[in-house]
Specification:
By secondary structure, the chain is α/β, with parallel strands linked by helices. It has a domain of 176 residues: P-loop containing nucleotide triphosphate hydrolases (Rossmann fold), CATH 3.40.50.300. It is built from seven helices and ten strands. The strands form two sheets. A six-stranded mixed sheet has the order 6-7-8-3-9-10, sandwiched between helices. It starts with 6 loop residues before the first strand and ends in a 14-residue tail after the last helix.
Length: 261
């Protein structure tokens, strides 16, 4: 897998200074992610999931411990790491192809190769024909597809996904989960998903990392040894879901309230 990165997190600690108080956000987090692996991270609000992604992407540098990509310390943002947020963050005055192309502004690729990569990734997320459309002409799901294309167009080694489908309706979410799985298989890169949705975590992940809050630490890591595409009604799928919900003291009948933010 030429574009898949190996991520190693070792004894990671993160503090914030708030009103003269030292808040411990992440506590001794250690995690190794293999090239091409899809890892899901679940946890209640305040467990540091999104902070962890910000550290991996390089938006913050003040931490203790190690974050290594292919054995080298991460320093600032880089084209080898892409990210997709819950909000698509598209520029309303730019077209689909222009929004995707923003991620290539600092790339040294020739202009024609940039154009080709933009078109390939627009097609990859199923938006061929919408290249000249503006964000206000797109649905929420289509806008998130643009954001995913923008995150992938540099062909990063790792794509980070921070609640990418959290604001979408259930049917759109299911469809995009399937498409994201297809994209992951096609691109062959390492993906890390942060989500409140336990079912989504199991459906997409090779492993599910369960975090507990205040300070955020890894409580447990569960492998998902199920064939793809996965059946949400499969007995082993349901068993895994109940097991993870049980880690939060929630039974399956209360799942509608799971990890509510």
């Amino acid at each position: 897998m030429p574009n898949a990165g190996t991520l190693t997190i070792n004894k990671l600690n993160k503090h914030y200074r708030v009103k003269d108080k030292n808040l411990h956000i992440l506590d001794n987090v250690s995690l190794s992610i293999r090239p091409g692996e899809f890892v899901s991270i679940v946890g209640s609000s305040g467990c540091g999931k999104s902070t962890l992604l910000r550290l991996i992407i390089g938006l913050e540098a003040d931490y203790q411990g190690d974050i290594l990509l292919d054995g080298k310390p991460i320093s600032g943002t880089s084209l080898d790491r892409g990210i997709v947020f819950q909000e698509h963050r598209l520029f309303p005055w730019l077209t689909v192809e222009q929004n995707v192309g923003l991620a290539l502004e600092n790339s040294t690729l020739p202009v024609e190769e940039k154009r080709r990569s933009i078109q390939e990734h627009i097609e990859l997320v199923g938006l061929r024909g919408f290249e000249k459309a503006y964000p206000h002409q797109l649905s929420g799901g289509m806008s998130q597809r643009v954001a995913i294309a923008r995150g992938l167009v540099n062909r990063p080694e790792i794509l980070l996904l921070d609640e990418p489908f959290g604001a979408l309706d259930a049917m759109t979410k299911y469809k995009l989960q399937n498409e994201l799985q297809h994209i992951w298989e096609t691109e062959g890169i390492t993906m890390i998903l942060v989500t409140h949705d336990v079912e989504e975590a199991i459906y997409l992940g090779d492993r599910v990392v369960i975090m507990e809050p205040r300070p955020g630490r890894i409580k447990r890591i569960l492998p998902v040894d199920l064939p793809r595409p996965r059946n949400r009604l499969d007995l082993e799928f349901v068993r895994l879901k109940e097991e993870i919900l049980g880690e939060f003291g929630i039974d399956h009948q209360a799942e509608a309230e799971v990890l509510a933010a």
